[in-house]
Amino acid sequence: MARKAYTSEDPAISYRAFGLIVFLWTTHQSLSAEVLSQFATEGRDAVQKAMGELRKMGLIVTRHQRTVNGRWMTGNYFTQGTADLMEKYGIRQQSAMNYKAIMKM
User: Fold this and answer.
1) What angle do CA 95, 101, 105 make, to 5 degrees?
2) CATH number for the 15-103 domain, one of 1.10.1040.10, 1.10.10.10, 1.10.1660.10, 3.90.1150.10?
3) SS3 of 11, please?
4) pLDDT tens digits for 40-76?
5) Cα–Cα distance between 75 and 42 in angstroms, integer?
6) CA-to-CA distance for 51 and 18, rounded, in angstroms?
7) How many angstroms separate the Cα of 91 from the Cα of each of 34, 54, 63?
8) Which residues, in sequence order, are bridge partners of residue 76?
9) Where are the domains of the chain?
């Protein structure tokens, strides 16, 4: 079953999921839940739950692909719904930022 795209009329998003999507949007990062949990008080399971919420709302899609050296890579990608949500709240993408520098702020 195809996910429906997020629209501004959709129900509210949790603060945890909203914070995660804003972080990913503004830092241009595509990080795993395990890596993301290293930079916050949230554990891996909490981050995975937020990512699941974002997927269910159609704000991100996750793709698994094999790299040229044969390893598997997982990437999270934004949808048009993400752009719509960010526009609704006036959140703009920054130029590529280093997430480690942001976490020190």
Assistant:
1) 110
2) 1.10.10.10
3) coil
4) 888 889 999 999 999 999 898 888 888 899 998 777 7
5) 20
6) 10
7) 25, 17, 25
8) 62
9) 15-103
- The pTM score is 0.70
Say which DSSP state 80 is in.
Answer: H
CA-CA-CA-CA dihedral for 28, 33, 34, 40, to nearest 10: 70
Structure tokens at 43: 């554990």
What's phi and psi for 98, nearest 5 deg?
Answer: -85, 115
Structure tokens at 9: 């009329």
By the 10 Å C-beta count (0-12 exposed, 13-18 middle, 19+ buried), 17 is classed as buried
